[in-house]
Fold:
Amino acid sequence: MKLKTILTFIYLCTSVPLFLFFKAELLVWVSFFINFLLITGITYFHLNLEKTYSPFLTSFIVFFYLFGIVAPIIQISSFDGVNSPFPTNFPYNSGAIIHANFLIFIFCSVFFLVYVFLKKTYKINSRIAVIETQTKYSTPLVILVLFLLCVIIVATNFNYLLEDIIKSIYDNKIESVFSLLLKKKVLFYIPLGAIGYTLAYLKRKNKINTNTLVAAIILLSLVFILFFFKNPLTEKRNALGPIYITLIYIFKPKLINTNSKFFLFLFLSLVILFPLMSTFTHMDGTIFELLNNPYLIVKSFIRFGAISTAYSSLNYDAFANIMASVDYVNLNGLSFGYQLLGTIFFFIPRGIWTLKPMSTGELVGNHLIENHGYSFSNLSNSIVSEGYINFGFLGVVLFAIVLSYFVIFFMRWMKSGDFLKEIMAFYFAVHLIFLLRGDLANGLTYYVGPLIASYFIPKIIESLLTKRK
Structure:
């Protein structure tokens, strides 16, 4: 049986019952079905007509299918009455639902049309950039320096990491935001770039000698260090997913190096694997408490990991937050780019920029607290919401265009012949799920950090060592 046939079967088995048993007002039902037809059309193009490997479009499709169709339909279907609230306490409102679906339709349509246009404009060829593509200047000395840098980071942060492993990742830590981001989003990502750099060297040499043996030992050590830095006891899923999937792409590319393979992998991961991972990444107890009382793991699974209830949790609040964002704009007006400034200049500390806007997720969260009796302000906020809060309908169109441009930019990185660029392009494709879910400030920050660590730091070291020769 062909993979595309399996994909079609899984897609229909998920979608047909979803709409068949979806009891809602006619216009609400139709608004979701129209978006479903659009996503299905884009999916057909991606799996049957698109010749270029595009994990970016896969992530885009899977995100809007799950977060824009499956999750809200399941949430609405679970309501007892018309006044039942969404996970963020935003009340059921047919007009708000239809409006949100309209914004999603516009965003997806514009993104796809610009995506197709830019692909033709930049003449991105149909060949898949294979994993054997090499960096040009890989040297044993650069690899050694990167490895020593990683060892130093481990040594200077060993107690910090052990504390992370022993305690719950949700314990509040007395640490500045800048220090936390520098460690978790930059320093602890350096092994990922070092792994890519070392593997590129080994594949290019393709022979056994002293240098390659040492490089192979370093490669294994770097993988161990990366897992020490990034594991379910120290990180949440939005960080682990891109890292681990990128490692699959680095070491076993044939598993996910076609649109069909990656679509199947990502679809099943978001439907099954990620909800199950909630069992481990959302545990409230310390490791000692879990060992003494294993039932805490079962309670964690029931609370966070049960697949049947996962879509009614805050993990799938993207659709509800689009409605909440529209509600916020109706009461407070558009920000006219003020929120966007906070995203673009995320690296400026709030201590220096005292009027720096709060993240849009927090802004909408406060709105829900003040107007809908919610109790939690640290929410996600999808890119559709970001566009709307900044510039209204025009912002939705503008953000879709900008996103499609960056997707094409990273597609060109995948074809560049530079292995580090290829790795970080693929990492962006997986990270796109988090970026689309938002909020945009965190989505951008959490990619720029790993980009600096995994691409620019190895390149800077390479440049410095090359000049010394």
About this structure: The chain has 21 helices and no strands. Residues 126-137 have pLDDT under 50 and may be disordered. The two ends are 56 Å apart (CA to CA). Residues 440-468 form the longest helix (29 residues).
